[in-house]
Design goal:
The protein has about 325 residues and is of the alpha/beta class. It has a single domain, classed as Aldolase class I (TIM Barrel, Alpha-Beta Barrel), CATH 3.20.20. The chain contains 13 helices and 13 strands. The strands form three sheets. The chain has an eight-stranded parallel barrel with strand order 3-4-7-8-9-10-12-13, surrounded by five helices. A three-stranded antiparallel sheet has the order 5-6-11. Strand 8, helix 7 and strand 9 form a beta-alpha-beta unit. Helix 11 crosses helix 13. The model has no long low-confidence stretch (mean pLDDT about 95).
């Protein structure tokens, strides 16, 4: 039904417009009596064999929603009801910001390209949004990122402030330091910057470092060393700046600021290779190119503890979590 009726309608809309319509639908549904129960009956799949424990947190299954899908935490309950054990909200910035000029998001045949630039309602507003989920049926991770006009030198202090505001509503945090859509943000993956951020954000809750699939092995070694030292995990990985993959959207995208993601085996393999290289030294959330059980199994076989999807929800529809969880069993 999704592929026959819903997807063709979304194909005729600007990708970001379709994204917001879908989130608004899920937001409205979670406010209607019986709406969440309906989603659970239609889409969710549960089995005790799917349960995982990672960094001291218990996940009812290993499949979650990656950052970027619900940036402001407006549809968390509905996403949990669809069968996702965790939702990573954000990335959330300290102050509200519009992000990059539109158009800034594209979708084609399961693939995505975005140059959003962290559009966010800001930490205080997002915290208000999350206050409604006190009795939730899943975990909430929060991805935090710096405002566009904040220098990298000031980033550690800003990340700590965001974490402080959102602390009560987070089960875990993700450090958004690798998005290719904000100028110089990726520099925060370098050893000195990352050490300062991890030192500033030390807390009693689990933390994951979101990395770029474009890191060199030497850069990845530095991240692994710091993750091991601070006893945090790694989310591998973000979208890629690879110009050859950007060409899937046209010649004009080759040098465009932004990241390619979604259903591409080449892209999926980039994050899988990183997971293999990490080799279980720290817990890993596998992200990138996952659109069904087979790709999810590739991440688990490589060493991931959990997986998270984004574009696959647009490609495959609301039943994607149940599809993957059934496939895992």
């Amino acid at each position: 039904m999704y592929k026959e009726f819903v997807s063709p309608i979304l194909d005729h809309l600007d990708s970001e417009t379709g994204h917001h319509l879908a989130l608004n639908f899920l937001n409205r549904l979670q406010q209607i009596p019986g709406g969440l129960e309906l989603l659970r009956k239609l889409y969710s799949f549960e089995d005790p064999k799917l349960e995982r424990e990672v960094l001291g947190l218990k996940f009812k299954n290993p499949v979650g929603v990656a950052a970027g899908l619900d940036k402001n935490g407006v549809a968390v309950a509905s996403l949990h009801a669809l069968g996702f054990s965790f939702v990573i909200v954000g990335s959330v910035t300290l102050e509200p910001q519009e992000g990059n000029p539109k158009p800034r998001q594209w979708y084609k045949n399961g693939m995505s390209f975005n140059s959003l630039g962290f559009p966010s309602q800001g930490a205080k507003e997002v915290n208000e949004n999350l206050n409604q989920y006190k009795n939730r049926n899943g975990l909430i991770g929060i991805s935090i990122g710096r405002n566009k006009n904040t220098s990298n030198q000031d980033a550690p202090k800003e990340y700590a402030k965001i974490m402080e505001i959102l602390y009560g509503n987070a089960d875990f945090f993700e450090l958004g330091i690798s998005s290719p859509n904000t100028v110089d943000l990726g520099e925060l993956q370098k050893k000195d910057y990352l050490h300062a951020i991890l030192q500033a954000t030390k807390c009693d809750k689990p933390v994951f470092i979101k990395i770029s699939p474009d890191l060199t092995l030497r850069e990845l070694d530095d991240v692994i060393d710091l993750a091991s030292y601070f006893k945090v995990g790694i989310a591998a990985s973000n979208t890629t700046k690879d110009p050859n993959l950007k060409l899937n959207f046209g010649e004009e995208f080759k040098n465009k600021i932004g990241g390619f993601g979604g259903n591409s085996q080449v892209f999926s393999d980039m994050s899988t290779r990183q997971i293999i290289y990490i080799n279980g030294q720290v817990p890993v959330i596998g992200i990138g190119g996952i659109n069904g059980p087979e790709r999810a199994r590739e991440k688990f076989d490589a060493g991931a503890s959990l997986v998270a999807i984004n574009t696959a929800l647009r490609e495959k529809g609301l039943g994607i979590a149940g599809l993957i969880n059934r496939g895992i069993l």
